[in-house]
From TrEMBL:
PROSITE patterns: RIESKE
UniProt xrefs under Gene3D superfamilies: Naphthalene 1,2-dioxygenase Alpha Subunit, Chain A, domain 1 (3.90.380.10), Rieske [2Fe-2S] iron-sulphur domain (2.102.10.10)
Name the record gives this protein: (2Fe-2S) ferredoxin
InterPro entries: Cholesterol_7-desaturase, Rieske_2Fe-2S, Rieske_2Fe-2S_sf
Organism: Edaphobacter dinghuensis
Keyword check for Translocase: no
Length: 361
């Protein structure tokens, strides 16, 4: 019925609002080598990133505070970043100015009181995570939320990562990520599922801080990857969490065997985003080439999503009015409600308690 639909678009939608005050993955940490720099973009902010000689990674706004020229046009010697325009030098982790070559003995300006914008930057799961504060908050202190990390349940495990650029805003990327009904149509493959595999599902959800959880349940019996775990003869359970601003955690347990993943949809600009998937597991740990095999099939899976969203972006150029239905689109409704509560600072949660949803997929 029309009362079950929610409008999420209009003829002239406003730019997508972005959530600041959070950690976002900027790029793979192995791209940052000692004495070298790379550029990146997060939330429309141009970044200069690199690794000092002592191994510490950094992220600076790619703009000199003097005249605005990109710092990436200059030089990095492993210790300081030097601007190409007037030679100003900055310690990259703090952003503190170390030298202004034009100053003379007659000047009273203390160069060390000048700072270029720098951002907290940490390595987790092979990614360089950058904390982007709220605009206008000034220098960031030490009281930051923990850096996101994929759950792991044993010391020995294998891992892999995937990345795909999406030509849509972060909202479309995220509701596409949590959409439970597209699988049989977008991900048709002999090793996954087909349209003929559609059947009714019942899932239980519960609220968690800044998000919601699909409670522990037996995974779908029509998915070949899950069937492989059956060789261990243990019950299989799956738990899926979505946490603001952009994180989907999935954990699959089968006795001592486990698989977990963290998928993020990161806003690059207000109109583009990027999906990153990091997975870790101890399933078939001793099987040769298991990482290469998992990466191959995972890449195909993500590429199918990417191709579909590229096609969707062609339609979104015309700013159509869109709709969300119950129950399959209820998680998307929760996401929009959580995001608005976060942006408005109300703290309201759309789930008052456990909820059961039904859909066919």
């Amino acid at each position: 019925m029309m009362s079950d639909l929610v409008q999420v678009g209009s003829a002239a939608p406003p730019p997508t609002e972005l959530i600041f005050g959070e950690w976002y993955p900027a790029l793979r940490a192995d791209e940052l080598r000692k004495g070298k720099t790379k550029t990146a973009m997060l939330l429309g902010i141009p970044l200069l990133m690199g690794r000092r000689n002592d191994g510490k990674i950094f992220a600076m706004r790619d703009l000199c505070p003097h005249r605005g020229i990109p710092l990436s046009a200059g030089w990095f010697d492993g210790e300081t970043v030097q601007c190409k325009y007037h030679g100003w030098r900055f310690e990259p982790c703090s952003g503190q100015c170390a030298e202004i070559p034009s100053l003379t003995g007659h000047d009273v300006l203390d160069a060390t009181k000048i700072f270029a914008n720098s951002f907290p930057c940490e390595e987790r799961d092979g990614y360089a995570w950058v904390y982007i504060p709220e605009p206008g908050t000034g220098r960031v202190g030490d009281a930051l939320p923990p850096v996101p990390e994929t759950p792991k349940f044993s010391e020995r495990y294998r891992s892999a990562h995937l990345v795909a650029d999406l030509p849509c805003n972060v909202d479309h990327g995220i509701i596409g990520l949590m959409d439970p009904a597209h699988g049989p149509f977008v991900h048709q493959a002999w090793w996954w599922r087909s349209r003929a595999s559609i059947h009714e599902k019942t899932k239980h959800f519960e609220p968690i801080p800044q998000g919601f959880r699909m409670s522990a349940h037996a995974p779908s019996g029509n998915s070949a990857p899950y069937k492989l775990l059956g060789v261990y003869g243990e019950p299989i359970t799956t738990t899926i969490d979505f946490v603001l601003p952009n994180r989907r955690y999935e954990t699959i347990r089968c006795g001592a065997k486990w698989f977990s993943s963290l998928t993020t949809v990161t806003p690059v600009t207000a109109s583009t985003c990027r999906i990153d998937v990091y997975a870790a597991w101890n399933v078939f740990y001793r099987v040769p080439f298991v990482t290469s095999i998992a990466t191959f099939f995972g890449a195909r899976f993500v590429r199918q999503d990417q191709e579909t969203m590229v096609q969707q972006a062609q339609g979104l150029r015309f700013n159509p009015a869109l709709m969300l239905i119950d129950d399959a689109d209820k998680p998307a409704k929760w996401y929009f409600a959580l995001k608005q509560a976060r942006l408005k600072g109300t703290g309201e949660h759309p789930l008052a308690g456990p909820v059961t949803l039904h859909w066919r997929s």
